[in-house]
Amino acid sequence: MMSSSSGTYSGSNGHMCTYETYVLRTSLTVDNFGRRFLGCSRYKVGPKCPFFQWIDNPTCVRGNEAAHFVQQKMDLLRSELQLAHERERAATQVAAEATQMAEIAQDRAAKATERERKFRASSVQAKEIAVRALEQERKCRIALMLSWFFFILVMLFSCFSSSENVGMMKLSLPGGL
């Protein structure tokens, strides 16, 4: 029931609508597409208020036919928008995974660089050790050659000194053998 003097409406559930609580809405149904109406702001909240009043005149038949195509186009646009949102979510997920994989690759590259640096350092140390070993080997060969040289000298000296002694002994023997 609507009271025109006070601008209020009392619904069957006891809720009192006023002009302050009315909301201007636009119909999207095929039969009344684009037609404006007043409805209670609490229509979807709590107990449903049945207040409803058309503001515009009924739409023409051709307008209703056009509204059907507009409604189909809107449905198509909604599904395309939903598909675009799904693609965006998938792209965002792929981008996040790619970022994570890039971070892992960077971490692995940094570790590989560190391993290469350590390898190069140990390679330099190995080369230094090899150079010292070669130097030690060279010194050992020189020492060995010198010891052989002295051995041969000693042997020659002992041979010559023994033979001189033998010769002297022959000379000094009484029988002159």
From TrEMBL:
<protein>
    <recommendedName>
        <fullName>Zinc finger GRF-type domain-containing protein</fullName>
    </recommendedName>
</protein>
<keyword id="KW-0812">Transmembrane</keyword>
<keyword id="KW-1133">Transmembrane helix</keyword>
<keyword id="KW-0472">Membrane</keyword>
<feature type="transmembrane region" description="Helical">
    <location>
        <begin position="142"/>
        <end position="163"/>
    </location>
</feature>
